[in-house]
Write a structure and sequence with these properties.
single chain, about 425 residues, mainly alpha, 4-stranded mixed β-sheet, about 5% strand, globular
Amino acid sequence: MTARLWAAVVLVVLVVALLVTAALLVPWHRPPAPRADQLAALRDLPEDQVARGRAFHAALRPGSYGSLAVGLVAALVLGLTPLGARLVGAVGRPFGDHWIAQAVLGGLAVVFAGELVTLPFAAWRHTVLVRYHLSTQGWGPWAVDQLKAYAVGAVIGAVALLGFYTVTRVFGSWWWAPGALGAAALVVLLSFVLPVLVEPVFNKFTPMEPGPLRSELVAMAARDGVPVRDVLVADASRRTRAVNAYVSGFGPTRRIVVYDTLLREAPPEEVTSVVAHELGHAKDNDVVTGTLVGALGAAAAVVAVYLLGGWAGLLRRAGIDSVAEPRSVALLVALVAVAGLVSAPAQNLVSRRIEARADQHALRLTGDPAGFEAMQRRLSAVNLADPDPNRWEYAFFASHPSTVERMAAARAYARQAP
């Protein structure tokens, strides 16, 4: 068989493997959250809290949609016209049009152009966060965080671009095979290594002071079969009032991380409830599931890009001869942008199912549905959540169940529990 025919067969196999993996590992059974309980929970929330959360999201909405639209248009203009290829060529020209300069510097220039056109919307978002007292950052620290994010993204992007275009040069018409393997390996590497390396760039971590809360969290993790190396406190208050906690790392690097804002805002039993939810992710290997799904998706995407490279009209529109040449990077960015938008509802659906399972884990582990519901109330109030978002935004942007869904799930659990 030809390389293209083999690629088509492998793409089908990867898509089937992705669907089977999702079917087997994603908890599609939805925990009970009756709509009647959701509406009752919504009525129980203070009216001013609900109104403030909805006003906050209404204020964010123009900037969020504007950033999405402008970013997508910029990606399409650069990718589906010769402009992107010309930009890559112009950046590489001072370096003798060397392919590495085009691939890395030209590719980063395309990505940075997209970031640049959406930067005003990011600044707009920051002004809204400050106005609603959710952000504690001034413009200087905010700009530093933006630069840090760009730097981290540039390093990852440079590695990915150099690896991709090295493979396309070395392996000829069969580049899709090692390219797919490389993409899957990169997803695995970033999933397991990136949190440990990148978290300290944005936050400082200090061990939680010995005391009843720390002892309870460590004991709960051990009781759950998820032993942790340490319990750390992140200095999140230097940028936000939002509350959160998470479990990071694997094996000997696993640790519980609690925002200092959570310790200030919530009583110990509510902190325990949040950490129990995060332990549920570790207990059910949700990071492993997400990594496997992401690796299969990345591999399939590389093979799909190879097959799309045979579409002469698409190449002509982008002003390139092949997707294997570095000047194709703008086209690849455009394809990724469209794929990300189209797949967002499915990705969020998977995420919500996994988060709902972690909620059930927290309820079983703590045996405290009242504490869980109180924590959801606090999360909604402090983080300015819309407790019951409209269906469109819920489908496209909600990675977690809504506040009223989580409160309703706690009430259903309380009715069923001994």
